Amino acid sequence: MRVVAFLLASVLWPTGLLATPAVEKGAPLEIAPGTSTWINRNGSVLVLDRGQDGLLQGYFVNNAPGKGCRGIPYALDGRIVDGMIAFHVTWRNGVADCPRQTEWRGEIRPTDEGRLEIHAAWEQFSTIVAIGLSSEEPEKGTDIFTLQMGNELLPERVAPGISVIP
Question: pTM of the predicted model, to two decimals?
Answer without folding.
Answer: 0.71
